[in-house]
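G., the chain you wanted modeled:
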Amino acid sequence: MATDVATRAESRGSGKYEQLLERCRGMPPVPTAVAHPCDDASLGAAVEAARAGIIAPILVGRADRIRAVAQAAGLDVAKYDIVDAPHSHAAAARAVELVRLGRAELLMKGSLHTDELMAEVVRRETGLRTDRRVSHVFVMDVPTYHKPLLVTDAAVNIFPTLDDKRDIVQNAVDFARALGMERPKVAILSAVETVTSKIPSTIEAAALCKMADRGQIQGAVLDGPLAFDNAISADAARTKGIVSEVAGDPDVIVVPDLEAGNMLAKNLTFLSRADAAGVVLGARVPIILTSRADTQRARIASCGVAALYAAARRRAGLIAA
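Predicted structure as tokens:
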């Protein structure tokens, strides 16, 4: 397994993340509440992003454990604020509170389960809910694709409704625009490119496109339903007779449900040797999700794209109150 991960890591890196991270140069580090960074992977990700000047971490968790992990991993955390919390659940709650208090503009997952952190995020009275549905976006560096590719939602919404998908698309569009994609091209995926009552996701794809026509989704051009081949390949689209501004050149791929999205993202990661940076959108602040399986590039990129989005929200006057 170690050899497999090392091989994948060596073969990655097509420069797309580096182009995005270049946009972070000159930006002040973004205050970031890191919930329960109590293993070497999560603490190391926060420290590396801080060294890169992307975030200013506030480490929330058992102080003695954080320092012990840092010492064992050879990480210097003396310069970072540490907010003591007795266990992972308390760390999640305290990290969310720091955002609500305005001390942090980003929230970052440490070594706790995603569900544990998200439960605090969506808590009605003390969480970070907005009028938008919370959703996840992978920013993927696929070596065989010509630009960064956003895939949504592959991690939060299991079987989203049409109204959920409207928010999922708008979240991704706003995020893409913050990353410099002025008018993102959004491909709504299904198994086929024609509308049929036998496959409900084709009907929802068509409805989303009409919603964009009516201004219910703004800032992007949508097309769907599209099968993955003609969404990603202009040649495949021409073969099928599809005339589309999106087909063959999407910035954003919207999947029918979490199962499809998760399988697509992991296929791209393990078969196409892609990196996958992950961010949760739709809350008061962007939420950085990293895992032990992520490469260092992906971890830094997750922090970088979240910082770019936070900066865009700050300019628009949308930072957490």
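The chain has two domains: 1-129+283-315, 132-280.

Shout if anything looks off.
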